[in-house]
Design brief:
By secondary structure, the chain is mainly beta. It contains no helices and 28 strands.
């Protein structure tokens, strides 16, 4: 889709509810397609799939489906070649895998690790492995992370059946786990990190599950809410503490000491996204601002942003499109905006 001719820098979509979870598709044939999750404080929530119409330059809702509880995260299958079925995953009470088609979005499987009880510990986040799309990892308030194996089974009536099983579950932290993310270190399949309410960043290796490495601990033991790996240099990751106006950048080769802090935020940070195409650019969101930083001069202090965008409401999510690096998506209130950078 050639939007460059129109030179519009911001495209906006207004949902019928507050938007929280949101993400870009990865497939090259569906470029300006995103999924949005509602944040409504009741059981019935919704997910919408929206796309930008080339002719009208407007966002259009392609489909809406009901989701139990708000989605804590949404991800499309990391399939840049379009080799797998068009799948979408959501976390909330459970991990769900959905199949998306032009006609409908259908639940393919619900992955539940608590087979013996009616109680489920809500999932705070999950990640889909880019190197092996048959691997997903979830993080939960019950202190555990679970690694799931996904199977796209035999074809029945022209439809591949999708199912999943627990590959491993581990107690990852002393308290709730708030985020999990696979690392590209060592091939990109086996290493992942997590953050949690105990204020630590921990690194795990699926080949050696008996121990973990603490990469960083918040000096005041404040809960760490998010972690985000640099997309080009797998040694770097960013994290943020609850109610903190700074983002901490870590180098796994130098554990426990931040290589940089992005401190010039006006309010607490709500989101982090590394550039997909550059190792030295990162976008953060605080209050009404989306900020892009150039961190090339690390470990010298990084004071200034190179780009700032002010939204009409408090930004609660930011995602940098992996297949089209000049577009960033933010959401605030009931709005999604995509910004050309």
């Amino acid at each position: 889709m050639s939007l460059h001719g129109k030179r519009k820098e911001v495209y906006k979509y207004e949902a019928p509810w507050t938007v929280y979870a949101m993400n870009w598709t990865v497939r090259p044939d569906k470029r300006f397609r995103l999924a949005l999750g509602s944040f409504v404080e009741e059981y019935n929530n919704k997910v919408q799939i929206v796309g930008l119409e080339e002719k009208s330059s407007e966002f259009v809702c392609r489909s809406t489906f009901v989701h139990p509880y708000p989605t804590t995260k949404i991800m499309w299958i990391p399939d840049t070649k379009g080799a797998h079925p068009d799948l979408l995953a959501t976390s909330g009470d459970y991990l769900r895998i959905w199949r998306v088609s032009d006609a409908e979005t259908r639940l393919e499987c619900l992955l539940n690790n608590n087979k013996n009880s009616d109680f489920c510990a809500p999932l705070t986040s999950f990640d889909w492995n880019e190197v092996d799309p048959n691997l997903l990892g979830t993080s939960s308030i019950d202190t555990t992370c679970t690694i799931w194996g996904l199977e796209t089974g035999q074809v029945l009536g022209r439809v591949n059946l999708v199912s999943g099983h627990v590959k491993t579950q581990l107690i990852a932290h002393d308290k709730e786990v708030y985020d999990i993310s696979f690392s590209r270190v060592g091939g990109g399949r086996d290493m992942f990190a997590s953050v949690g309410a105990d204020g630590s960043v921990r690194m795990f290796d699926l080949r050696h599950m008996e121990h973990s490495t603490i990469i960083y601990e918040d000096p005041l033991h404040h809960p760490l809410l998010r972690l985000c790996w640099n997309k080009q240099d797998p040694n770097y990751l960013a994290t943020m503490a609850m109610d903190s106006p700074e983002v901490v950048i870590l180098d796994v080769r130098l554990p426990c000491t931040p290589v940089a802090k992005l401190s010039n935020h006006r309010a607490c940070v709500n989101g982090i996204a590394w550039a997909p195409h550059s190792s030295c650019h990162i976008c953060t969101a605080d209050d009404h601002q989306a900020l892009i930083w150039d961190i090339q001069q690390m470990p010298r202090a990084i004071e200034d942003t190179i780009l700032a965008y002010t939204a009409e409401g408090e930004i609660n999510n930011v995602q940098w499109a992996s297949t089209q690096p000049d577009w960033i998506a933010i959401c605030y209130n009931n709005c999604l905006e995509i910004l050309r950078v």
